[in-house]
Design goal:
Elements: H1 3-39, E1 43-44, E2 50-58, E3 64-75, E4 82-89, E5 92-98, H2 108-111
Antiparallel strand pairs: 1-3, 2-3, 3-4, 4-5
């Protein structure tokens, strides 16, 4: 076994681990967004989330973790598309942002 072979095996293993973890984080993000959209009577469009960014950051204990931001589209009326972003720090939801959107017609039942 050469040193070059070990290096490339390590690179491939790191890539597979990064992809595998990223897929798990994306599933967690999708579940959170779906739950929040359902609570707010919104429809998640295309059931798709797009990775917008990944960067390292330190948590409260000082450990290095990856922060990931995903973009998605949703609708409140069934016609107009609105943008949203969700940010996860490790496996935990850090931030969720929904662009301004029209309230659905049946939203009044929640106000009474």
């Amino acid at each position: 076994m050469t040193l070059s072979f070990l290096f490339w095996c390590t690179v491939v293993a790191a890539f597979i681990s990064f992809w595998w973890t990223g897929d798990k984080v994306k599933s967690i993000a999708m579940a959170q967004v779906y739950r929040i959209c359902k609570e707010q009577n919104l429809q998640l469009l295309d059931q798709t989330m797009v990775l917008r960014g990944v960067w390292p950051a330190r948590d409260d204990e000082g450990s290095l973790r990856l922060r990931r931001r995903y973009g998605f589209e949703f609708t409140s009326t069934g016609e107009a598309r609105s943008q949203g972003t969700v940010e996860l720090f490790g496996f935990k939801l850090q931030n969720l942002h929904l662009d301004a959107h029209m309230l659905p017609e049946n939203h009044d039942k929640f106000l009474h």
